[in-house]
Amino acid sequence: MRVRRNKRFHAEIAASALSDIMFFLLLFFLIISTLANPNVIDLMLPKADSNKTTDKAHITISVNADKQYFIDKQQVPFEDLESTLMSRIAGSGDNVVIVRLPKDLQVQDMVDILQIGQKNKLKFSIATTK
């Protein structure tokens, strides 16, 4: 008597393409994470022991070492800073403003900006690094 073997089909998963897909996903997320906040000007921010992060895209005021003022990435003269800021806030409805100052800027420059927020009852937050 002769015994026949069953030739069953065994399902296999080709894993060679999965590593390529994972590599492209990793690359995609790395590129996207660097573009998370495109309205940022490169500054040497002051350090703090603890800092909170936000997921919302707030309006940012940046001042570079040459005392050039920027709202998001648009350069604005200091004389027009308050009016431009208030028009942006009226358009977005968000009264939280992130202030980005270099660590070696004078305190008086920071106070000049914070007085604008105090006068218009805005919530200012200073950006720092950890």
Instruction: Give the number of helices.
Output: 3
What best-fitting shape do the alpha-carbon axes yield?
Answer: elongated
Total strands: the figure is: 5
Strand order of the largest sheet: 3-2-1-4-5
Helix fraction, binned, reads: 25-40%
Topology:
Layout: H1 16-34, E1 59-63, E2 69-71, E3 74-76, H2 78-92, E4 96-100, H3 107-119, E5 123-126
Parallel strand pairs: 1-4, 4-5
Antiparallel strand pairs: 1-2, 2-3
Structure description:
- The chain has 130 residues and is an alpha/beta fold.
- It is 36% helix and 15% strand.
- It is built from three helices and five strands.
- Strands 3-2-1-4-5 form a five-stranded mixed beta sheet, covered by helices on one side.
- The longest helix has 19 residues, at 16-34.
- It starts with 15 loop residues before the first helix and ends with a strand.
Main features:
alpha/beta; 130 residues; 3 helices; 15% strand; five-stranded mixed β-sheet; elongated
Outline:
The protein has helices at 16-34, 78-92, 107-119, and strands at residues 59-63, 69-71, 74-76, 96-100, 123-126. It is of the alpha/beta class and 130 residues long.
